[in-house]
Design a protein that fits this description.
Layout: E1 16-21, E2 25-31, E3 37-44, H1 48-60, E4 67-72, H2 101-109, E5 113-117, H3 118-129, E6 138-143, E7 147-153, E8 156-157, H4 190-194, H5 196-203, H6 214-235, E9 239-243, H7 244-247, H8 252-264, E10 278-280, H9 287-301
Parallel strand pairs: 1-4, 4-5, 6-9, 9-10
Antiparallel strand pairs: 1-2, 2-3, 6-7, 7-8
This protein binds zinc ion.
Zinc ion (ZN) binds at residues 168, 183, 185-186, 189, 191-192.
């Protein structure tokens, strides 16, 4: 607030801190005002204590940042009326339920901090910097270990009391598919039928080794097209981007587009003629981290501490 950065007064507080909190690894980075990565680390997600210590040690040992953005795996408490705002919600992931991610990292770095889900952050990044540029409303879907969706309406994340959980929507079983589904909560919801682990369990092989098998990817596309149908009818986005270890696979987007055409049954206004509705994200594995950096950037932009010249 005062002259704590006298040793390097020009631009020090323009540096952005970004954390992508993932279920298998955390990535933390310091970025400059052009969103270039100055420094970064990746640490395995183990216990909250060990993982968060590695992250806070990283920020303590690098150039001071002006603000911190966090993109977190879910479920995340995003209800601002809750005393647990910014904490991990009850989750099967051992040890993480109730972890006050936002409060902990804000206290440790002593800078303004904000949090959103990883898919919301990735959606914002694709909208600002990637395949969603120039569109008013987009949806971003990641298909990997789980299935998550973020929706931006006029560039702003759509949320209710909780963040959306469209990965757990029900799906209509494709004729002849006897796979029972593997969601611990719902069994044969979308995630239970079409996540990476579901693919692997159904076919007995890794997604990478199933390349080129039409029956595998057409079935996958059929389930994902059911989500596109819901997104189309609920939000009517201009663009729906697929990402993640399964979702970003080559040739999947056109298959989803074909299956979507069938699932819409000819009933839609604008999307019947929108051949570019479905695409693959452009930022790949960087989308979540860049979204976190953009969140930090927005805090700096609204901060009264920003240097004026
Ligand atoms: Zn489910």
């Amino acid at each position: 607030m005062t002259n704590s950065h006298v040793s390097n007064p020009i631009g020090t507080t323009d540096l952005l801190g970004a954390v992508e909190a993932g279920g298998t690894k955390f990535r933390a980075a310091v970025l400059n005002s052009n969103l270039g990565i100055v420094n970064q680390i990746r640490v395995s997600t183990t216990t909250p204590g060990a993982t968060l210590k590695a992250v806070t040690d990283f920020f303590a040992s690098h150039s001071s940042i002006g603000a911190l953005g966090i993109a977190s795996f879910g479920p995340l408490i995003v209800d601002r009326d809750s005393a647990s705002y910014g904490s991990i919600a009850p989750t099967p992931k051992p040890g993480w339920a109730g972890t006050p991610l936002l409060d902990h990292l804000r206290d440790a770095t002593a800078v303004p901090a904000a949090i959103q889900t990883d898919v919301e952050a990735a959606a914002v990044a694709e909208h600002r910097l990637g395949a969603g540029r120039g569109y008013d409303s987009i949806a971003y879907i990641t298909v990997g270990t789980g299935i998550g969706a973020g929706v931006l309406i006029d560039g702003m994340p759509f949320r209710g009391r909780d963040h959306i959980e469209l990965g757990h929507m029900p799906v209509r079983r494709v004729d002849g598919d006897a796979f029972e589904g593997m969601c611990p909560f719902h069994g044969d919801c979308l995630e239970g039928m079409a996540s990476g682990p579901a693919l692997q369990a159904r076919w007995g092989a890794t997604p990478a080794s199933l390349s080129g098998r039409n029956e595998v990817w057409n079935l996958e596309a059929d389930y994902l097209a059911q989500l596109v149908r819901v997104l189309t009818y609920a939000f009517s986005p201009d663009k729906i981007l697929f990402s993640g270890g399964v979702g970003a696979r080559k040739h999947l987007a056109p298959r989803i587009a074909t299956a979507t055409h069938r699932h819409l049954g000819g009933y839609s206004v604008s999307h019947a003629t929108n051949r570019d509705l479905i695409a693959t994200g452009a930022l790949g594995n960087d989308a979540g981290l860049m979204g976190a950096a953009l969140l930090a950037e927005s805090l700096l932009a609204s901060s009264p501490q920003t240097f004026s010249g």
